[in-house]
């Protein structure tokens, strides 16, 4: 049962296209996993679409569009497969302009993890897994736009030293469970941490925990010797 | 020069919920027959409204028209993905427009990797092409880093401490210790290289 969701205001901004592409990515990935938020987004999309298109014909002269219309109808039909048989509204980019390779699963340490569809589109740009301190594994994902994305896997008993955040840290739990001393998070949970929050994530789950994280600024380690990690905090940032 | 296809002027009184069925039929005809006349009806209804919305949202005529063109191109090319049972044409086209919007934002924000040839990267991690080769237990602990830190020469240690534990800037450290900024930088660099060396010896 998913307990932590994006705020409704953030979901609404997502529907309107008014959040950053990086935020849109992780919000959309949460919606892949969360029926409730998916329903909310679908409903909101219907309402806003009706608002936008339920308007009188604007007064701009239609001649401006003749050339555009002609150019569009010169284009060949796209050769993508027909819509997926399931009834999910495709929240993420239906077809990005650039071609991409779908990567459906991630493999680490003998485990295989199925990714939500939104992340399948970017997972091809995942770098190598690196072992960090404390049974922690990380693989960066190249985004090409601001924001730093990583898959992070905490093995059983794995932990991230206590830290706060200079910007905003989004975490989506993809598999397993972790606890950060504030709450316990399970698959599908969407966790937002800001510079007001200090936490120390660890996982005692039998299978450990795989998360997808998004940062806009490096972490800042707060406790004792872990502060020495701050020069290396780009490990968690980049 | 492209010869413009006359755009069908739709009746301004018609609202999308009233014409949803009609628009659905046109989109299906586009999908099945590549029917340009049907597409012109869809285009005539949605393009100008989309432009007003995009203009409000982005405040830029060129970007607004790009969004209209990209969205309507998707409608033309991917009409076969439309499924009237899943939602109205308005909802479908709006969803495409939003995704185009995110694509445009991505392009606008696309930054060339600010390459910092940061040789710190390998310090705390090892590239492991095969995750199974290294046991999770063979990793460096925080305590070990602490011991290594204690082993640093005093001058390097004080610089590292001031910067990374007290959070001072390199300039502040230079001012306090009455040494040139360049010296602070080189001590930092040496210290981090030394830490890196110690971590490698650890293996």
What gyration radius of chain B follows from the Cα positions, in whole Å? Answer: 31 Å
Task: Quote the beta fraction of chain A.
Answer: 15-25%
CATH class of one domain in chain A: Mainly Beta
CATH architectural name of the largest domain in chain B: Orthogonal Bundle
* CATH T-level fold name of one domain in chain A: Jelly Rolls
Class of the largest domain in chain B in CATH? Answer: Mainly Alpha
What is the count of helical runs of chain B?
A: 8
Mean pLDDT over the full residue set of chain A: 79
Largest sheet of chain B: none
Helix content of chain A: 10-25%
Anisotropy-based shape of chain A? elongated
Largest protein-protein interface: A-B, 80 and 93 residues
Which of globular, elongated, flat, extended, rod-shaped describes the shape of chain B?
rod-shaped
Helix content of chain B: 55-70%
Number of strands of chain A: 11
Quick structural summary:
Chain A has five helices and eleven strands; from the N terminus they run H-H-H-H-E-E-H-E-E-E-E-E-E-E-E-E.
């Amino acid at each position: 049962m998913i307990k932590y969701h994006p705020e409704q205001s953030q979901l609404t901004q997502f529907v309107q296209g008014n959040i950053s592409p990086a935020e849109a990515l992780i919000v959309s990935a949460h919606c892949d996993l969360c029926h409730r938020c998916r329903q909310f987004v679908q409903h909101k999309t219907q309402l806003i679409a009706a608002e936008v298109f339920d308007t009188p014909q604007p007064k701009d002269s239609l001649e401006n569009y003749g050339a555009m219309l002609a150019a569009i109808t010169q284009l060949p039909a796209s050769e993508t497969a027909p819509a997926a048989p399931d009834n999910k509204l495709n929240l993420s980019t239906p077809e990005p302009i650039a071609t991409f390779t779908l990567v459906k699963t991630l493999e680490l340490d003998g485990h295989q993890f199925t990714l939500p569809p939104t992340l399948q589109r970017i997972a091809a740009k995942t770098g190598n897994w690196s072992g960090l301190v404390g049974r922690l594994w990380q693989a960066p994902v190249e985004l090409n736009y601001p924001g730093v994305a990583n898959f992070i896997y905490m093995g059983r008993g794995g932990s991230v030293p206590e830290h706060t955040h200079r910007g905003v840290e989004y975490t989506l739990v993809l598999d397993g469970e972790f606890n950060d001393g504030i709450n316990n998070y399970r698959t599908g949970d969407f966790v937002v941490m800001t510079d007001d929050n200090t936490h120390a994530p660890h996982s005692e789950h039998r299978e450990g925990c795989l998360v997808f994280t998004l940062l806009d600024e490096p972490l800042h380690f707060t406790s004792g010797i872990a502060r020495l990690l701050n020069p290396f905090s780009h490990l968690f940032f980049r | 020069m492209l010869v413009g296809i006359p755009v069908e002027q739709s009746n301004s009184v018609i609202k999308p919920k009233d014409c949803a069925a009609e628009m659905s039929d046109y989109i299906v005809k586009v999908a099945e027959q590549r029917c340009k006349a049907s597409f012109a009806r869809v285009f005539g209804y949605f393009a100008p409204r989309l432009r007003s919305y995009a203009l409000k949202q982005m405040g830029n005529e060129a970007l607004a028209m790009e969004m209209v063109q990209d969205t309507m191109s998707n409608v033309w090319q991917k009409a076969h993905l439309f499924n009237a049972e899943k939602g109205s044409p308005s909802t479908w086209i709006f969803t495409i427009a939003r995704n185009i919007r995110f694509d445009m934002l991505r392009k606008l924000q696309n930054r060339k990797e600010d390459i910092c040839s940061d040789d710190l990267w390998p310090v705390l991690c090892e590239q492991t092409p095969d995750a199974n080769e290294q046991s999770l237990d063979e990793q460096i602990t925080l305590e070990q880093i602490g011991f290594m830190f204690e082993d640093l020469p005093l001058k390097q240690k004080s610089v590292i401490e001031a910067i990374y534990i007290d959070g001072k800037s390199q300039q502040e450290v230079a001012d306090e210790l009455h040494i040139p900024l360049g010296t602070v930088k080189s001590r930092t660099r040496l210290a981090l290289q030394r830490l890196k060396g110690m971590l490698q010896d650890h293996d």
